Amino acid sequence: HTPTPPHTATRPLLHTLPHAHSSTLSYKLAYSLGYVLIYYGYFTHHLRSHDSAHTLPIKNTWNILPRPDGAGGWFNPYLTQLSWSFFKQSFLKQLLTDGERYIMTIFGVLSFAQQGVYDVINNLGSLVARFIFLPIEESFYVFFAATLYRGEPVSKQKQESVPLVAETLAMLLKFVLLVALTILSFGYAYSALALDLYGGRLLSGGSGPSLLRWFCLYVLLLAVNGVTECFVFAAMSQKQVDRYNRTMLVFSLVFLSASLLLTQLFGSVGFVLANCVNMATRITHSCHFILSFFSPTRHSPLREAVPSFPVWLAFAGACLTTALSEAILCCDSGWLFRLLHVAVGTVCLCVVVLVTVLVERRLCLFLMDRLPARVGGAMRRLSTALWKLARLPVDHAHVD
Questions:
Q1: What is the chain's percent helix, strand, coil content, to nearest 5?
Q2: What is the model's pTM?
Q3: 46-79: per-residue pLDDT in tens?
């Protein structure tokens, strides 16, 4: 059999690429148009309801469309400047998000095979951030933006809102931290098994498990950064956003430099470590802003967000137990030993959840009030039964 010449094999692909790009662009345009129409349809339906006058500052759908203001201009100067600031910030965040791909393409620090494994791990690890953390960040950004006066110090905020904001920020941070700690603690011992089930030896036999384990640490930092930044962006003034954009330029340079250096030392893991460095610097900046914002008050949401010592102990025990289980049972001894390894992890997860429910009662009460009625009611019944078994008071929201 004579091999097909490379130019002959790639010619159909080259002919179809323009059509592929056109199809992709058409899909994106259709998606964007559908997204806009859904929003306009929602507002049209809501404006026709009886309670719309009390919830929206507009009277009909035409008020949503662009129109000149009373002075004859089409753009509000303050909102235009603020939008431009957020645009620059989004551009820099895009550079930070996809910076490793630019490094891969320009400097060729990884082989194509290594790039393929890295992309698979990156996409798998991003699922948690995309489906759990991102909706939380977007929802509570709206809450913080609606509750706080942008750019004003805490002394000029509505005083009844300050405790609510501090409580919400602390509990939200603690929740995402606990979710991310669960991923980190169990991800170490189950990364190889998960990749073996997903892609076979091609993923689980090389650097894949190590990459996914380090990515679990990156998810932890990603979760904390998302919540802290959603508060910071809701409270910052336009000048502070512009100043933060200049800071993000420094973060971008640090990230790109760290990517080049760490990939030379650790290979594809270096990209994950560089992302961790990037997230750690952004978390440090956000925490500094939060500490400064709440410093005139008695509230300390960052300190209140730290889980209790028994919870840390439960996570440490689960991590050590599952790591020992992986060394003994997984993953070359057959399906029976794999199932036993999964059973060990299930028991450890139940212990972690039990300790968390018994110790972090304030967080449980916070979640009960904000989850949908059916889920919150089930959680309340389960938590109440556990608290009664442990002889803990049921009707107090705070436990020292």
A1: 80, 0, 20
A2: 0.75
A3: 777 766 555 666 777 777 777 776 666 777 777 7
DSSP character at residue 131: I
Where does residue 49 fall: left (phi above 0), alpha (psi -120 to 50 degrees), or beta otherwise?
beta
Alpha-carbon distance 301 to 237, whole Å?
21
Q: What pLDDT, in 10s, does the model give residues 139-198?
A: 899 899 889 888 888 888 888 899 999 999 999 999 999 999 999 999 999 998 998 888
**DSSP per position, 212-266:** HHHHHHHHHHHHHHHHHHHHHHHH--HHHHHHHHHHHHHHHHHHHHHHHHHHHHH
Residue 306 three-state SS: coil
Residue type, 63: N
- Contacts of residue 99, Cβ cutoff 8 Å, sequence gap at least 6: 252, 255, 256, 259
Structure tokens at 122: 């990156």
Tokens coding 239: 């000048």
